[in-house]
């Protein structure tokens, strides 16, 4: 997930999933191996609610920037307490601010009810490629935040949207709320080094 799709920084940070993923306050779990010794990362994009009707339809609360963002992914991983299962999305539709979805193998209300409370995730490498200097929220979470003078402020715990701009919750010796304003407040983002430089008074 503004870090959009709920991830936005130098460019916008975009919401990928409430910007939540396996490495951050982004719930989820670390991914299985992706070959070549690499690991894949899950990004949580929503949560299963109650059953809808008697034919296995599910109510889903999406964490994406627009409600239909989750419907772009043909396969969902559903997880709870560290246990993950993959399902094919058969069909889905926007229902107000939430979704109604039907998954392969979920054919009745009892099966749908059994999934209530599960998180819905996709692989991070399946998210749309962003333009240069755009970031997903989940990529920013966990970054170390320092001032231009090298003063460590903490790490990005999470982000949330306001009417004007996104705000980072930075957790260090105390909590700071730092607006995600590229160029003005956010001076540099280095995802490889897992570091962000900001123009911010440490006293605030």
Structural account:
The chain is mainly beta and 204 residues long. It has helices at 109-113, 137-140, and strands spanning 13-14, 20-21, 30-35, 38-52, 57-62, 75-80, 83-95, 98-103, 119-123, 135-136, 144-147, 152-161, 166-171, 175-180, 186-190, 195-198.
In terms of topology, how is this protein built?
Blueprint (H helix, E strand, L loop, with lengths): L12 E2 L5 E2 L8 E6 L2 E15 L4 E6 L12 E6 L2 E13 L2 E6 L5 H5 L5 E5 L11 E2 H4 L3 E4 L4 E10 L4 E6 L3 E6 L5 E5 L4 E4 L6
Parallel strand pairs: 1-10, 11-16
Antiparallel strand pairs: 2-4, 3-4, 4-5, 4-9, 5-8, 6-7, 6-9, 7-8, 11-12, 12-13, 13-14, 15-16
Quick description:
The protein has 204 residues and is mainly beta.
> H/E element string?
EEEEEEEEHEEHEEEEEE
Strand content: over 45%
The total count of helices amounts to: 2
Order of strands across the biggest sheet? Answer: 4-5-8-7-6-9
Rg, Cα atoms, Å:
18 Å
**Poorly predicted parts:** 1-12, 18-37
- Percent helix: under 10%
Shape: elongated
Q: What average pLDDT do the residues reach?
A: 83
Largest sheet: 6 strands, antiparallel, barrel
Distance between the termini: 26 Å
What is the count of β-strands?
16
């Amino acid at each position: 997930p503004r870090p959009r799709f709920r991830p936005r920084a130098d460019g916008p940070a975009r919401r990928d999933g409430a910007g939540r993923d396996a490495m951050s306050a982004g719930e989820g779990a670390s991914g299985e191996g992706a070959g070549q010794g690499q690991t894949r990362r899950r990004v949580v994009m929503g949560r299963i609610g109650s059953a809808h009707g008697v034919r296995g339809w599910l109510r889903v609360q999406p964490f994406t920037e627009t409600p239909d963002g989750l419907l772009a992914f043909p396969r969902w991983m559903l997880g709870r307490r560290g246990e993950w299962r993959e399902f094919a999305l058969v069909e889905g539709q926007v229902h107000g601010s939430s979704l109604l979805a039907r998954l392969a193998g979920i054919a009745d209300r009892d099966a749908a009810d059994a999934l209530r409370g599960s998180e819905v995730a996709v692989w991070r490498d399946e998210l749309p490629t962003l333009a240069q200097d755009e970031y997903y929220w989940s990529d920013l979470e966990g970054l170390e935040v320092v001032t231009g003078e090298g003063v460590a402020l903490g790490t990005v715990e999470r982000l949330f949207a306001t009417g004007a701009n996104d705000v980072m919750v930075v957790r260090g010796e105390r909590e700071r709320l730092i607006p995600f304003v590229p160029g003005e407040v956010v001076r540099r983002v280095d995802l490889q080094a897992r570091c962000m430089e900001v123009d911010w008074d440490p006293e605030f």
